[in-house]
Amino acid sequence: MPAGTMKAMVLRAPGALAWEEVPVREPRPGEVQVRITHSGVCGTDLKIFKGAIRVRHPLIMGHEMAGEVTSGEPGPGVRTGDRVIIDPMLFCGICFHCRAGQTNLCPNGRLAGRDAEGGFAEYLAVPASHVFRLPEAIDSRTAPLIQVATTCLHAQRQVPFFLGETVAVLGLGVSGQLHVQLSKARGAGTLIGISRSRFKNALAEELGADVTIAAGDGAMAKVLDATDGRGAGVVIECTGTVSALADAVRIARPGGRILLFGIMNATEASLPFYDLYFKELTLINARAAKPEDFAGVIELLEQGAVRLEPLVTHRMPLGDLETAIRMVEDGPGERLKVILEHI
Ligand SMILES: [Zn+2]
Ligand SMILES: [Zn+2]
Description:
The structure is a single chain. With 343 residues, the chain is of the alpha/beta class. It folds into 2 domains: 5-146 and 289-341, Medium-chain alcohol dehydrogenases, catalytic domain (Quinone Oxidoreductase, Chain A, domain 1); 159-285, NAD(P)-binding Rossmann-like Domain (Rossmann fold, 3-Layer(aba) Sandwich), CATH 3.40.50.720. The protein has helices spanning 43-50, 96-99, 145-157, 174-185, 198-206, 219-226, 242-251, 273-278, 291-303, 321-330, and strands spanning 5-13, 16-23, 31-41, 64-72, 83-86, 89-90, 110-111, 123-127, 131-133, 167-170, 191-195, 211-214, 232-237, 252-260, 282-285, 312-317, 337-341. The strands form 4 sheets. Strands 3, 4, 5, 8, 9, 16 and 17 form a 7-stranded mixed sheet that branches. It has a 6-stranded parallel sheet with strand order 12-11-10-13-14-15, sandwiched between helices. Helix 1 packs across helix 10, helix 3 (145-157) packs across helix 4 (174-185) and helix 3 crosses helix 9. The protein is globular, with a radius of gyration of 20 Å. 44% of the residues are buried. It binds zinc ion (2 copies). One zinc ion (ZN) is lined by residues 91-93, 95, 97-98, 106, 108.
């Protein structure tokens, strides 16, 4: 391969991915070059691939990526050669929200792999402030999941929580499984997981759920049974569907909190609105993550309070990106995270 070029998966138009040789962008002042070793594929990539999220083409997607710093100007605590996880949420640093510490809400913010070049490639130059060193205990092969976990941790930080409270998690995909673990790590009492998938319910039990319930008819009555008829103090909605939000309202206890973690695109809904009032429920939204969440997740992983390895069900080479994206589209089955190996 000629010097100064690399292999990358380039999205030329919706549905048109090509394995191409492209120029390597050298790091600018304040940036580091990262040789990407592993990346994760998620629903956002699928939406970009299909054109449901509009982007400028050509685009190199990929926002869940781990690698090794090869050059540039690393910041404190990171050296050339270190293994790192990349925070893909780029922000301006000088707007009202950034100065208020709400970098995740920066109106000039861009997500690498969606609004800026991403990591489905051999190299990616990123601000030195956006790489976090991976300690020995964290395997690069699961590290891309750290990015997903940061969005879960950021969301959990928004939810007032009392020690020993009952928590119900609706939807046990990758994020749901992370919320099970994070809730337990912060002192949840009875943890109830609800999924259509037997495989996902079984995994949630392995990761800390006390009770799991098969989604479907009668499921919400079973949740109430498991809480002596009272309901859960915290309900974490991870499916992004209105019907699950309605279920969340039904199974939350009076004075409870509902975290709307699944991204909901509906603009109209039928919901038990009166229950929101009568039970005095709090609805909490959370978007993306902040830099502090990377340090937080890395510590939780080092402590063993959160495990990523059981969430990886498939591995394939970067060149099979389209297959990986199609697997995300095909949905459930015994699939959680697909990790791409770049070398
Ligand atoms: Zn993602
Ligand atoms: Zn900003």
